[in-house]
Amino acid sequence: MLSNDQIKSRFAKARKAQAAGRLTEAAAGYRALIKQAPNLAEAYFNLAEIFSTKAMFGEAGPNYEAALKLRPQEPAIWLSYLNMAERHPNTDNLARLLTRAQPVVGHLPAFGFLSGMVCVRRGATEDALPLFKSAIAKGFNAPRAYVEYGVALAALGRNDDALVQYQHALAKQPNNSFALARKSELLRDMGQFEEALATARGAIAYTPESAPLYYTYCSIAKVQAGDPMIANMETLAKKPALDDPSKTFLGHALAKAAEDTGDKANVFGYLKMGNDANLRAHPFDIEQDRRSVAEFQAAYLKMEGGASDDASDVAPIFVTGLPRSGTTLVEQILSTDAGIEGGGELGILGDMFAASWDGAISPQALSKIGHDYAAQLVKRFPDARQVTDKSISTYAQIGFVKRALPNAKIVVVRRDPADNALSIYKNMFAPGTHRYASSLTGIAQFMRLFESQLDFWRQHCPDDFVEISYETLTTEPEPQIRALVDAVGLEWDDGFLASHENTRKITTLSAAQVRQPIYASSVKASAKYETELEPFLTEYAKLDPLK
Q: Residue 489: left (phi > 0), alpha (psi -120 to 50), or beta?
């Protein structure tokens, strides 16, 4: 057994190593100490914090639990544990831990903030706003609190209010890269590119080894040869300890810079670096998607009759298709109409279908979904005559959508497969989403599945949607836009031909492109990368249903 002085000495040594960033040394010290002093809560707690810092959640959790077993009423342990759980991919972990922690820390402002984070991650963003506001008012006013409040406001379209919160964060800490990054992204989405670029540069100056910031910068800038950011990214990419998330961001950022500067030879090398890292973190299995589609279509075929008599009469315009197919451009054109609110990728209806799905959806459930969806539109866009919804996966639900919302219009955008595949592979999506996008063969498999779903709806409800070609839209804009406007039941106005002047917020990867006059330079863009795209082309041809 160790004496108290020996325990204090060894703990102090491990703590000093931890404070100096020598985490492996510190962790070894705490482990050795725990063997000799198994009732030392501080050793378990600090070991848990080391694992939490390294995002080793499986190792951190048991040590937090051991510390709490010894000190169940210690707020610091609960708050640290909660902060780790907030970073865990599974939101349910945080929700369950909040319930356990409430008797000890439920009165603290930080508890309200973390409760708001649960709401955000579960898609109930509006419910998070009063929780964030209250937490800040009660004293939880760290920069992050303002930033997360701003992010929630921006998600609900309250852009000016979001910028105010980002400024509050920066007033407290001018070099806060989290606040600068979110501000830069919001300014980009609002079309204020010069200010967005300056903000991104400022963020990188404060945090020069943050891979996500370089991605943000490259998503805004037309990178020029000799830009010092390129050398910075290349140096960072060579670091042996670079983790996969950073490789994902850097790979896509460097590929964008290489393409902007005409360095074609390196574009796909950087893309492979980024996409391979993302695929390791988020593997893709086409069979799971195929099973889901088959189940969904089988349920549709078993349904009888059309929309119920009490179905909602709301008439949204859904714009759908594969990512990078031109859906943002189509929504930008339609929302040029003064009475049309461009809703972007709302995701509301898909969540409602998922919540009601148990292998089937009854007509009564569909009717309720339609009315609930209509209520959400009124809540989010109270002054809009009509709303566009660019939720990407709507194409998978066309027949169900028309039963829930019989007055809805559905536009499916199609694009040349090779061009579409190239654009998907070049762009980075939110972690864990569009998993197929990190693999050229995965893109081919998913694209064929997409095409099979459209074939299904053409066979069973051909009048429920219209299709538009991105290539035809960009090479013959006026006749195609006139046909589009007519198909969704709008009155013609010449303003539809100047959609690039539309100043609405755009949160997709196409934010910069659609603020330019319609151009056709992306048509056949894949031709110069035929060799690099060979895995896609081979898999796509192999899966040709006509062969």
A: left
Between CA 405 and CA 366 the distance in angstroms is 8
CB 34 within 8 A of CB 42: no
Name the burial class of residue 241, with classes exposed (0-12), middle (13-18) and buried (19+) by CB atoms within 10 angstroms of its CB: exposed
Distance between CA 397 and CA 289 in Å, rounded?
Answer: 14
CA dist 145 and 158 (Å) reads 17
Coil, strand or helix: which one is 466? strand
pLDDT score for 423: 95
Of 203-217, 284-298, 493-507, 529-543, the poorest mean pLDDT is in 493-507
Handedness of CA 235, 236, 238, 239 (dihedral sign): positive
pLDDT given for residue 499 in this prediction: 62
Q: What are the tens digits of pLDDT across the range 345-391?
A: 888 898 888 888 888 888 888 999 999 999 999 988 888 999 999 99
Q: Read out DSSP for 392-418?
A: GGGGGGHHHHHHH-TT-EEEEEE--HH
Q: Judging by DSSP bridges, how do beta strands 466-469 and 386-389 pair with one another?
A: unpaired
Q: Give yes or no for residue 431 having a pLDDT over 90.
A: no
Q: Compute the average pLDDT of residues 435-452.
A: 97
Of 282, 272, 208, 217, nearest to 245 (Cα)?
282
pTM to 2 decimals? 0.78
Neighbour-count burial of 288, counting CB atoms closer than 10 A to its CB (0-12 exposed, 13-18 middle, 19+ buried): exposed
- The length of the chain in residues reads 547
Quick one: average pLDDT of 134-150? 95
Instruction: Indicate the residue type of 122.
Output: R
* Element spanning 341, H or E: strand 340-342
CA torsion sign for 59, 62, 64, 67 is negative
pLDDT-derived band at 517 (thresholds 50, 70, 90) equals low
Among 114-128, 135-149, 306-320, 501-515, whose mean pLDDT is lowest? 501-515
Confidence of residue 80 (pLDDT cuts 50, 70, 90): very high
Written as one string, the DSSP assignment of 104-134 is: HHTTSHHHHHHHHHHHHHTT-HHHHHHHHHH
Please name the residues in contact with 479: beta carbons below 8 A apart, sequence gap of 6 or more.
none
Contact 529, 420 (CB under 8 A): no
What is the chain's mean pLDDT, rounded?
A: 90
Identify the residue whose tokens are 């409430």. Answer: 102
Q: Are 371 and 433 in contact (CB under 8 A)?
A: no
What value, to the nearest 5°, has the Cα angle with vertex 30 and ends 29 and 35?
100
pLDDT for position 501 = 56
- CA atoms of 531 and 526, how far apart (whole Å): 10
CA dist 490 and 257 (Å) reads: 40
Residue 443's nearest CA partner among 481, 415, 464 is 415
203 in helix, strand or coil?
Answer: helix
Instruction: Evaluate whether 333 touches 423 at the Cβ level (below 8 Å).
Output: no
